[in-house]
DNA sequence: CTGAAAGCGCTTACAG
DNA sequence: CTGAAAGCGCTTACAG
């Protein structure tokens, strides 16, 4: 009924319920330590007044904000959106709130974003990628804030990771292609600077090729993320003109792969007959594309959920955040097959 | 140097700088009202101690949290991710933080999410879709919290909207198809319950068809959002078997459209020769799909940015949030053409 | 230009 | 089981 009064606080409720503010507070936070009758009165009064505790006051008093921060490269990439979504869902259900801040793909300037979000009250952090900046590392170490990094997996004493093995995932894809008979491949990578995931995939590609003696079949094309739908096409054109012997293209993102395939169509290249293409991520779209994309499925939602649980464990039970290596999966669909035998090189024994 | 001390506060800085806490506070917030010398000392001390103001204390004292909340259906849909991204970017740059909470597509239970986010301190709100729940409406009205809803546009005295005209957008697509010669169409819609955008698009479809005397050519297929990649395919199969005369399919999401086209392939239906398909959203993927999708481009990022600015205007300058109708665009690509003339119905004059 | 002090709303020892 | 009171860290009239 009281219409214009700002907002009820503990005192208002206490007065209305005829008890002290201590009792009001206890009724909400440690109900067992309040008599049933008083508790009842408090709840009624609170309901009547539309009371809800002031989060700032609570945070100040408790030295605990119930805020968790996520610093991610971008929300525009479905995998990050998916991870963030799962993270947020899990945390919201447990009474936490999540701040998300996007920071681009270059981890070299993550420090500012992290500082900002911590200064805004985040008491735990989800990050993406390996944390290499020494200033960030020591900041995290000194500040002692529970944090976890995702998408990468590596043994790091100060920043545990809940991610997957980018190197191994790529290696698996490359070995699959080698088994199929491919000897000359190109990788379409995102910007490598400050992005350990891209770097790991590149190494996975190079070293696997080399391990199979295919030193001459290694081509790396680095593309930016802007207008991703063009980048794959650009890369494909470059491959077509500069590396005509390439029979398989390993893309570090499904968007690259799909737009590369689209470009193949324009170039008159059949996928997979003329050229095989594999992606990375396993976006939803990959299955309805034709040819359906062979790609590496990434545990995006699982990373988000797992990270959420670990961080809450750290916050509420003081548990250390444990690193976890989640699995990826090579999903073989229609965009890969045995290579065409280039006309000039047909050798009877191979047929 | 002081290593294990929790965190410096105003008193620590004041002591180190040899001034009072009032001066410390002023040095940061109203620097002109502090002598240059004192200011200097304060900044040095603060830097030394790694001081940053406690946001909870600040919020409590100022009765202002610098937190803005966004309640969106899902982050997994690229358009929402894109809007949220733009919203967040704009606000973060201005010193605000954003809480995002996802709530599913049915606005009938948005109230809880809104209450929760407000109780967590949000001082302004971005919502999605028309707010019809009377309880939510009166909550927003009483609480006087600046808020804006997106994706829908409608004159609403209590919840201004920064969105677009779903009805008109669909109407435009349908008229385009009619002009092409289509007389029998199906709409593939998301769940209509509690989703005014879907409802508006359905009305746009039905009424436009009727306005052209095509009452018999109206088919609505309602699909859920779960596993969206299946839904379009399911719908397409249903159309194929139950409404064989349909020559154009209007999908209320690109995911529906793309998976419908994929299903056409399986069904042996050529797009657009045998059947035209139009989407909604203009996802990135639509251009690399073959056929490239004719669809309705939605101003996702623009809504986010615009909403951010409006909310900040309301918060800082007390400006009322003004509704704004942003434009959509029918982007005609390859998935639409004149209809095939069903064999049984060929009439010489029409050819 | 500067400082002492009150107060934002909450929780929790401390007494009883 | 309950209450009075201190204190979390900050800002801002109010004095000077």
UniProtKB/TrEMBL annotation, chains A, B:
<dbReference type="Pfam" id="PF00356">
    <property type="entry name" value="LacI"/>
</dbReference>
<dbReference type="InterPro" id="IPR028082">
    <property type="entry name" value="Peripla_BP_I"/>
</dbReference>
<feature type="domain" description="HTH lacI-type">
    <location>
        <begin position="8"/>
        <end position="62"/>
    </location>
</feature>
<protein>
    <submittedName>
        <fullName>LacI family transcriptional regulator</fullName>
    </submittedName>
</protein>
<dbReference type="GO" id="GO:0000976">
    <property type="term" value="F:transcription cis-regulatory region binding"/>
</dbReference>
<dbReference type="GO" id="GO:0003700">
    <property type="term" value="F:DNA-binding transcription factor activity"/>
</dbReference>
<dbReference type="InterPro" id="IPR046335">
    <property type="entry name" value="LacI/GalR-like_sensor"/>
</dbReference>
<keyword id="KW-0804">Transcription</keyword>
<dbReference type="InterPro" id="IPR000843">
    <property type="entry name" value="HTH_LacI"/>
</dbReference>
<dbReference type="Pfam" id="PF13377">
    <property type="entry name" value="Peripla_BP_3"/>
</dbReference>
<keyword id="KW-0805">Transcription regulation</keyword>
<dbReference type="InterPro" id="IPR010982">
    <property type="entry name" value="Lambda_DNA-bd_dom_sf"/>
</dbReference>
<keyword id="KW-0238">DNA-binding</keyword>
């Amino acid at each position: 009924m009281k219409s214009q009064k700002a907002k009820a606080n503990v005192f208002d409720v206490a007065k209305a319920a005829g008890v002290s503010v201590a009792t009001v507070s206890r009724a909400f936070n440690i109900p067992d330590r309040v008599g049933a009758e008083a508790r009842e009165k408090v709840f009624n009064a609170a309901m009547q007044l539309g009371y809800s505790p002031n989060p700032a006051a609570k945070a100040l008093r408790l030295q605990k904000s119930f805020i968790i921060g996520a610093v991610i490269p971008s929300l525009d990439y479905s995998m990050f959106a998916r991870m963030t979504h799962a993270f947020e869902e899990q945390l919201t259900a447990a009474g936490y709130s999540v701040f998300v801040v996007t920071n681009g793909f270059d981890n070299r300037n993550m420090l500012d974003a992290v500082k900002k979000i911590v200064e805004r009250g985040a008491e735990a952090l989800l990050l993406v990628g390996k944390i290499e900046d020494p200033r960030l590392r020591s900041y995290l170490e000194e500040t002692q804030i529970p944090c976890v990094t995702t998408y990468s997996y590596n043994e790091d004493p100060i920043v545990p990771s809940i991610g997957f093995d980018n190197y191994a995932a790529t290696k698996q894809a490359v070995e699959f292609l080698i088994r199929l008979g491919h000897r000359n491949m190109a990788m379409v990578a995102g910007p490598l600077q400050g992005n350990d995931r891209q770097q790991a995939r590149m190494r996975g590609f190079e070293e696997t090729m080399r391990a199979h003696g295919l030193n001459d079949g290694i081509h790396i094309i680095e593309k930016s993320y802007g207008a991703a739908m063009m980048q794959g096409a650009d890369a494909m054109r470059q491959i077509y003109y500069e590396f005509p012997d390439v029979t398989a293209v390993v893309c570090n993102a499904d968007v690259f792969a799909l737009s590369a395939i689209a470009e193949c169509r324009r170039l008159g290249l059949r996928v997979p007959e003329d050229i095989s293409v594999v992606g990375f991520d396993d976006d939803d779209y990959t299955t309805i594309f034709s040819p359906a994309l062979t790609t590496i499925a990434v545990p995006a939602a699982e990373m988000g959920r797992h990270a959420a649980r670990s961080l809450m464990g750290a916050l509420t039970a003081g548990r250390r955040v444990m690193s976890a290596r989640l699995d990826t999966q090579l999903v073989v669909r229609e965009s890969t097959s045995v290579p065409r035998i280039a006309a000039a090189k047909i050798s009877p024994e191979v047929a």
